[in-house]
Amino acid sequence: MVACSFCGSQAEPARTGTGGAAICADCVRTLGRDVGPASFSPVPGRVLPRFAGVPTFFRLPVHEAVKGADVAIVGIPFDGGTSYRPGTRFAPREMRNASCMGRGYQVGTDADVFRTLRVCDAGDVCAIPLDLAATFRNIETRIGEILDAGAVPLSVGGDHSVTLPILRAFAKRRAGKPKLAVLHFDAHLDTYPPSWGVDFHHGTPFRHLVEEGLVEPRDVIQVGIRGPLAGKDDLDFARRHGFEVIFIDDVRDAGPRAIAQRVERLRGKPVYVSFDIDGVDPAYAPGTGTPVPGGLTTWDCQVILRALKGMELVGMDVVEVSPAFDPTGVTPLVALTMMQEWLGALAAGR
Q1: pTM of the model
Q2: Environment class of residue 26 by beta-carbon count within 10 Å: exposed (0-12), middle (13-18) or buried (19+)?
Q3: Cβ–Cβ < 8 Å for 22, 16
Q4: CATH of the domain at 64
Q5: From first to last of its 350 residues, what are the pLDDT tens digits of the chain?
Q6: Contact assessment for residue 4 and residue 23, using Cβ atoms and an 8 Å cutoff
Q7: Phi and psi of 57, rounded to 5°?
Q8: Beta-ladder partners of 321
Q9: Which domain holds residue 189?
Q10: What CA–CA distance (Å, rounded) separates 70 from 143?
Q11: Neighbouring residues of 138: CB distance < 8 A, sequence distance ≥ 6
């Protein structure tokens, strides 16, 4: 039992907000019903300079209750599933800073995002750096709250392990509905076995998604995969379960527009996008924990994301941005560009 940060009553917290504020169930309901921003519009750069003001995602209002929003952008500052270089816990904060350069009109999809969609900054999940299991529970709870409020979650990690609890929250609310299709940008398959006896880490989420029955395996498309691998058998799980694995050589040989045509088969299905920044070549996005040369260009990714225009887009995560490894700040900007392209595709279908 703790004191609610809003009403002061002693109760089990319904959830923990940004900064550890405990909120009781009654106040969560009140906030969701009665409290919201006066406008979902970003602060215009021609009114307040883009380097000024308190950083939020795309200079949007903070609205943790989410009620009334079409899209909730939520930070997941967690890198407890990282197996090599940590640092992705700092990505949501840095990406808020970088997103001051974001603008609403997306040329590639002819969509004015913030005039079409009500988008908010939903704060951060309470990520516990020393406890993966507890953090997974907090992620699942928070994504569930966003879904229950009727908003589409756009999650900013964090390492790639966070995709698993996100899609657990989806699965609990999709009983009797088609399983999710997933478009997965990455250098790695993320279907690997346990490491050092640890089964849940950033190299295993796509294996667990299948083993827990959270996705339709034949509707998982992985783009940008490349070696070297630990062994040829690293490909066995994806092939056995029917993933469509699009290697970087396929992208280079056919071009991104041809890959976009292959993704077209997901139209008519609920599509979740998981974007690991290490799918992009480190020449464009060096700020990540496990960089792999020879990857996708930023334009490759933009072309493919724009092809999602008009699809049933149910959510997105952007993961593995590790700001400390890119002092230029380009990597967060690349990640934010992919978020904007996805938002443009979502807005264009409304």
Answers
A1: 0.89
A2: middle
A3: yes
A4: 3.40.800.10
A5: 778 766 778 877 655 554 555 777 776 656 554 457 778 889 888 888 888 889 999 999 999 999 999 999 999 999 999 989 999 999 999 999 999 999 999 999 999 999 999 999 999 999 999 999 999 999 999 999 999 999 999 999 999 999 999 999 999 999 999 999 999 999 999 888 788 888 888 888 999 999 999 999 999 999 999 988 888 888 999 999 999 999 999 999 999 999 999 999 999 999 999 999 999 999 999 999 999 999 999 999 999 999 999 999 999 999 999 999 999 999 999 999 999 999 999 999 98
A6: yes
A7: -60, 120
A8: 288
A9: 36-348
A10: 14
A11: 16, 125, 126, 127, 128
127 and 1 inside one domain: no
Q: Which of 290, 76, 64 is nearest to 165 (CA)?
A: 76
The answer on 83 and 6 residing in a single domain is: no
* Total domains present in the chain: 2
Exposure pattern of 227-261 as b/e (b: 16+ CB <10 Å)?
eeeeeeebbebbeebebbbbebebbeeeebeebbe
Nearest of 276, 275, 274 to residue 290 by alpha carbon: 276
Which residue type does 88 have? Answer: T
Residues 27 and 160 in one domain: no
Q: Tell me which H or E stretch contains 317.
A: strand 312-319
Max intra-chain CA distance, the chain: 63
**In this structure, are strands 10-11 and 2-3 parallel, antiparallel, or unpaired?**
antiparallel
Residues 211 and 156 both lie in one domain: yes
**How many Å apart are CA 273 and CA 71, to the nearest integer?**
14
Co-location of 83 and 126 in the same domain: yes
Identity of residue 328: T
CB contact burial 75-109 (16+ within 10 A = b; e otherwise): bbbbbbbbbeebbbbbbbbbbbebbbebebebebb
Instruction: Clarify whether residues 17 and 158 are in a common domain.
Output: no
